[in-house]
Design goal:
Number of strands: 8
Oligomer: single chain
Largest sheet: 4 strands, antiparallel
Distance between the termini: 55 Å
Structural class: alpha+beta
Shape: globular
CATH superfamily of one domain: MetI-like
CATH topology of one domain: MetI-like fold
Radius of gyration: 30 Å
Order of helices and strands: HHHHHEEEEHHEEEEHHHHH
């Protein structure tokens, strides 16, 4: 019997595998997923319909039609135009979102910058500087955020001088004022042709990015360092300035002026905003400082010594060698810090700042009802912002991760 005959015979006597519906991988990979999706969908449908029926049985309002109903209250701080009796609860929702995003973005920028500074100072060779940075971290990190917010509001900004005795922060020019009613500053008023200056700024930024990319490529190829700061600063300043002057300086300033018992004109930030901004910045920068310190310590000491050995100054060693290698360790916990800033901004309700929770989930809920819809919309907003921050920083985190060869 030849080899081919033996193979054919073995194929004939080989038993056929039986098809098992519940254990077959091809079926199981699809069937069980569809089953779980169906169960989740049915659960959601059951909860929604049951809740709607219970609300209807008790005569409680449901649905999102209330967003088009006129709201009967105003806020002391808003970034869009709003008129009591004309604006709707939808406008209030938008005002709350913009106020929350405004304070959150400002606090995120400030706390990241301050956290990096304090984190680097924690590793200073100067004993006094290092201990002061340590005291800063330990004091503010171990004090509840709510207490810090109330302290800055009631103990600092509420005790500032009255309007007529305001601090002139402009050095005698009487354009920037600080008092117990808030912070007042000039506000730009755009004129015709200002858009051309904006285009010049965009062109300058694009040119700077191209120039920096060329300079880095040249350094990688030839080893020669091309100056970046002065050319970039000159381009971002001189080009828009030239266009601004050529177009006739189409920009005015609305400055605050004292009329009666308060300032009018310009832009104003209430004490609640200032207290919340300072508290969020200081509290989260203390955590950020420890994250930065841990990231820097994760870099091998040999990297620092090697950079000094080739003649780099300590400042450039930190900027060009240590920080870039520490970023993969800094970014993941920094994502949580940024999300915490957004979520903790909801504590503004304690001092009356009109964020989303204060004006929408509190005042609007008390007036319009619709508790489930309002609470659900508020939760959805914070979840969307948190997921957006996490997604964007994860993209950046992948770019700064070290690639092993």
């Amino acid at each position: 019997m030849t080899v081919n005959d033996r193979l054919k015979e073995s194929e004939r006597v080989k038993p056929k595998s039986q098809f098992d519906f519940f254990h077959d991988e091809r079926v199981r990979s699809i069937f069980y997923q569809l089953l779980i999706a169906a169960i989740v969908g049915w659960t959601v449908w059951y909860l929604v319909t049951t809740t709607a029926n219970n609300l209807e049985a008790r005569g409680m309002k449901s649905g999102f039609n209330f967003l088009g109903v006129e709201a009967g209250f105003d806020t002391d701080f808003r970034l869009i135009d709003y008129t009591v009796g004309i604006g709707t609860y939808g406008d209030i929702f938008l005002i709350g979102i913009l106020n929350t995003l405004y304070i959150s973005v400002m606090a995120i920028i400030a706390m990241t910058f301050l956290g990096f500074i304090v984190g680097v100072l924690r590793l200073s060779s100067n004993w006094l500087v290092a201990k002061v940075a340590l005291a800063y971290v330990e004091i503010f990190r171990n004090t509840p955020l709510l207490i810090q917010i109330i302290f800055w509001y009631t103990g600092i900004f509420s005790l500032l001088p009255k309007v007529r005795k305001s601090y002139d922060l402009s050095g005698g020019f009487e354009t920037i004022f600080l008092n117990n009613r808030g912070f007042y500053m000039p506000w730009p008023v755009a004129g015709d042709g200002l858009w051309m200056t904006g285009i010049a700024v965009v062109i300058a930024i694009i040119a700077i990015l191209i120039y920096r990319r060329w300079a880095h490529k040249r350094q990688d190829t030839t080893g020669q360092i091309t100056p970046l700061f002065l050319p970039s600063a000159g381009l971002i300043i001189l080009l828009p300035a030239a266009v601004f002057l050529i177009t006739g300086s189409p920009l005015g300033w609305d400055t605050p002026r004292l009329e009666g018992f308060n300032f009018t004109g310009g832009a104003a930030l209430p004490p609640s905003f200032l207290a919340l901004f300072v508290a969020l910045t200081i509290y989260h920068s203390a955590y950020m400082a420890e994250t930065v310190r841990a990231g820097i310590l994760s870099v091998n000491q040999g990297q620092h010594d090697a950079a000094l050995a080739i003649g780099l100054r300590p400042g450039r060693v930190m900027k060009l060698v240590i920080i870039p290698q520490a970023m993969p360790a800094i970014v993941p916990p920094m994502i949580s810090k940024w999300m915490d800033v957004v979520k903790n901004s909801s504590l503004a309700i304690a001092i009356g700042f009109p964020d989303l929770v204060a004006v929408f989930m509190s005042t609007s809920l008390n007036q319009a009802g619709h508790a489930i819809e309002i609470v659900g919309m508020t939760m959805a907003f914070y979840m969307f912002i948190s997921l957006s921050i996490s997604g964007l920083l994860n993209i950046y985190n992948k770019r700064v991760q070290l690639v092993e060869r």
